[in-house]
Automatic annotation (TrEMBL), chain A:
Keyword ATP-binding recorded: no
Organism: Sinorhizobium medicae (strain WSM419)
Pathway: Cofactor biosynthesis; ubiquinone biosynthesis
Ligand binding ([4Fe-4S] cluster): C169, C176, C193, C232
Known function: Required for O(2)-independent ubiquinone (coenzyme Q) biosynthesis. Together with UbiV, is essential for the C6-hydroxylation reaction in the oxygen-independent ubiquinone biosynthesis pathway.
Coiled-coil region list: none
Name of the featured protein: Ubiquinone biosynthesis protein UbiU
Length: 325, 311, 168
């Protein structure tokens, strides 16, 4: 199975390649990709250099153009696709049907991957994207169990890539307007979720309160570690209950099930985290690289080390485990 | 511009209502509500199907007798084999047009006239035209879209009727996990249909007691109620021809009558808003998405006018 | 880890001009090595960033648009759009891009006040450069050279501790 690794900056890109990525995915420095965070992403020149760097070391580069084109401004996305193709991207990761149709028509030879943001969660959906746009690979939503994936793999005509490590969307990706409901900025339209521009922390009677737009997302007593106010990972009141309504602040880790994923027919394992630092990328990629080649016993030791590195952070196998639902 | 062609659509009931309540609701809509189209059928959770199954035939019969045009809704999230089979058989057997709410329905509907629901991502005309070529004749746009996008999409996609959500809590997210069951101490596989206890959604408040969202099974909806009344004439001017009313647990016949009056210029939008607040007092109104702001925001027309006057 | 007091104490009496001179030298050498550093800031380039090490009696204010740095003893004098305060080693880990963006917000030992987005942009810009403090500052630190090498040591030891406070 291939290891697909994130890069938010050229520095992180080089770290990912050096640490053993089979492919690195990244995006341009604008709203054409779903990690449109300040200070992140690639200029055209940086992408060209990164692709060359990867190629010299036998790694591929996937370019994410995985937001939905703003009506009337489609040219921004079309130009990004043109530039990514020109610079030699090995695959484009797309979510918008209009953009998929454009790429399939204009660059029929270009490898097209379906972004998780397209929310293709069943065989009919995936086969539609294969037939309509010539998709070669689908990144599955984090809403499926491993047995769902195995069943799906038998019925579709393209490769499967799944998320195995990093951040976890609780909601079906590409179908969530929670962020824009509170801030006006959404993953689909702006490439951001719970954007820093709308985040505020304030002290209140000894608690640290985190706010997103006009809404309180969490309160942390003095002795508790504070978190970033990602909307779906906040604490809320529902009737008489108080707590994490959607999901605890945990991240995804299903590396202990890579044999099951391989048997299910998965071709590529994806690490989330283009917004994470280069040190994080280097450590996670090199450890998961080793884990892929290791015996099950060795793998346990390696993964335990990785978990130790993210001490204080809890992980979950998310929807891959049926009980999570 | 298409001045004569503007109608109301009743969207599917998104909540789990008791079978008889559900039936009686639709009977009354058939008899009294000035809506031209009714989109009907379970949209949120496949586990709920048996609640309405016994009543669907008499409801359809009553609707058709009353001259309403029926559109079958489909599931928003299809992951299980059972769910795929349900969508396939619904599309194969339906004597009425079907509305696609996920990519599987979209795939299966190719080549026959169908509708696109607000849960399919149509953010630009390029996408709308791809769907139109495959047979989509009616597209209800996602609630997140600002007026500028709506205008752009409608004007560059000929041959499609466009619809906009004008009333109701906005669908914001859907998950494989059931937050509604979780809030009541269950998991999805053993949910005991607790969402039935909240026919208008289960409110989610912030820790500072601000009303924020509402849970509806695996779906999260806004706490606020979308209310595009002042915006109707502008939307009609943009070429939008249908306006969707999404059922809440209130007098939806009164909502339909009110929107119909405002749509045809017989009631002023401001008066309409005041009456809308009386009909559905449970939720504050919002129209922020339409104005390119946060979805929860309320942009008052009066303020815009005042602002214009001062400028 | 707090900055060792015996090292911090003299900074309260050393003339500010001397400290500022040394810091300016280091800053200039850093920018020489990483000329593209501030390009990544985009719209946040014109903002003022203040760094307040809680274990030093000093505040550093950086203005990317003028490639300028200012050192002061008074918090009040340090008007800035975005302020980050915390132990020096964490601030320096942040400078080296060894501190995860998410961790920046997550860790309570580092507090961001003001323009959160600007500070995130700076963090990401720093991460995008391959800043290596001991290498980049090395000889240019002048009179503060021993202090620099000692803190660089501390950073090396503590670097990945900053990664512990991860978030998703």
């Amino acid at each position: 199975m291939e290891l697909i690794c994130p890069a938010g900056t050229p520095a992180a890109f080089r770290e990912a390649v050096d640490a053993g990525a089979d492919a690195v995915y990244c995006g341009f420095r604008d709203e054409t990709n779903a990690r449109n965070f300040p200070g992140l992403n690639f200029s055209r020149e940086e992408l060209g250099d990164a692709i060359a760097y990867a190629r010299r070391r036998g790694a591929q580069t996937f370019v994410a153009l995985n937001t939905f084109m703003r009506a009337g401004h489609e040219g921004l996305w079309y130009q990004a696709a043109t530039d990514a193709v020109r610079l030699g991207a090995d695959a484009l990761i797309l979510a918008d049907f209009g953009l998929m149709a454009h790429v399939a028509e204009t660059y029929p030879e270009q490898r097209l991957h379906v972004s998780v943001q397209a929310s293709a969660s069943n065989p009919d959906a995936v086969n539609f994207l294969v037939e309509a746009f010539g998709a070669r690979r689908v990144v599955l939503p984090r809403t499926l169990t491993i047995s769902d994936i195995a069943r799906l793999a038998r019925q579709i005509r393209c490769e499967i890539e799944v998320f195995v490590f990093g951040g976890l969307c609780v909601m079906a990706e590409g179908r969530c307007s929670l962020s824009s409901y509170a801030t006006g900025k959404s993953p689909n339209m702006n490439g951001v979720c719970s954007p820093a521009s709308h985040v505020r922390y304030r002290q209140d009677r000894g608690d640290l309160v985190s706010e997103l737009g006009a809404y309180t997302i969490n309160r942390f007593p003095r002795d508790e570690a504070a978190g970033y106010p990602t909307l779906c990972k906040g604490r809320f009141d529902i009737a008489d209950a108080r707590g994490y309504a959607f999901e605890d602040p945990v991240s995804l880790d299903v590396m202990d099930q890579i044999d099951a994923l391989r048997e299910a027919g998965v071709s590529a394992l994806k690490i989330e985290g283009r917004q994470r630092g280069k040190a994080y990328v280097a450590e996670v990629v090199s450890t998961l690289r080793k884990a892929l080649a290791a015996t099950p016993e060795e793998r346990r030791t390696l993964l335990a080390r990785l978990r130790l590195l993210s001490e204080g952070q809890r992980t979950t196998s998310g929807a891959y485990e049926k009980r999570w639902r | 511009m298409n001045a004569g062609k503007r109608t109301l659509t009743l969207g599917p009931v998104l909540y789990l209502w008791e079978g008889e309540k559900w039936r009686d609701f639709y009977f009354r809509i058939a008899d009294e509500a000035p809506v031209s189209h009714v989109v009907i059928g379970e949209t949120v959770c496949s586990k709920r199907l048996h609640f309405t199954d016994p009543y669907i035939a008499p409801v359809i019969e009553r609707m058709v007798a009353a001259g309403k045009r029926i559109v079958f809704s489909t599931l928003a999230l299809v992951t299980l084999e059972r769910e795929s089979q349900y969508v396939r058989s619904l599309i194969a057997d339906s004597p009425y047009p079907v509305e696609a709410n996920d990519l599987s329905a979209l795939a299966l509907l190719e080549g026959e006239p169908h509708w696109i629901g607000p849960l399919v991502n149509v953010y630009n005309a390029a996408t709308a035209r791809v769907l139109a070529r495959r047979g989509a004749g009616n597209v209800c746009l996602p609630p997140e879209l600002p007026a500028s996008s709506i205008n752009e999409i409608v004007s560059h996609t000929p041959g499609v009727d466009f619809e906009v959500l004008a009333f109701g809590r906005m669908p914001l997210a859907i998950s494989a996990r059931c937050a509604h069951a979780r809030a009541k101490g269950h998991i999805k596989d053993n949910c005991q249909f607790v969402c039935k206890d909240d026919p208008d959604g289960l409110p989610v408040k912030t820790l500072d007691r601000q009303s924020f969202l509402a849970l509806n099974c695996v779906q999260t909806v806004s706490f606020t109620c979308q209310a595009l009344l002042s915006e109707l004439s502008g939307l009609v001017g943009s070429g939008v021809s249908r306006f969707r009313l999404s059922p809440q647990d209130c007098d939806m016949v009164a909502v339909a009558r009110l929107y119909n009056e405002v749509l045809h210029g017989r009631v002023d939008a401001e008066d309409g808003l005041a009456r809308s607040r009386q009909i559905y007092p449970a939720a504050p109104l919002s129209n922020g998405f339409h104005h390119g702001q946060e979805g929860a925001a309320w942009i008052a027309r009066a303020r815009n006018v005042a602002h214009g006057a001062n400028a | 880890m707090e900055f060792p007091r015996p090292l911090a104490a003299p900074l309260a009496v050393v003339p500010i001009a001397l400290i500022e001179g040394a810091v300016k030298l280091m800053f200039k050498s850093l920018l020489n090595r990483h000329p593209a550093l501030f390009d990544r800031l985009g719209e946040h380039r014109g903002k003022r960033y203040a760094f307040c090490p809680l274990d030093l009696p000093l505040v550093f204010v950086v203005e990317p648009s003028r490639a300028a740095v200012l050192v002061t003893r008074k918090r009040a004098a340090a008007a800035a759009d975005a302020v980050v305060e915390g132990p020096l080693f964490l601030l320096l880990a942040l400078l080296e891009g060894r501190c995860d963006a998410d961790a920046l917000f997550f860790s309570r030992s580092l507090t961001v006040i003001g323009d959160m987005e600007a500070m995130l942009a700076l963090r990401n810009a720093l991460d995008g450069c391959e800043v290596d403090l001991p290498r980049d500052l090395g000889a240019s630190a002048g009179p503060l050279s021993p202090l620099v090498s000692r803190t660089a040591d501390a950073i090396r030891r503590r670097a990945l501790a900053g990664e512990n406070a991860a978030w998703n």
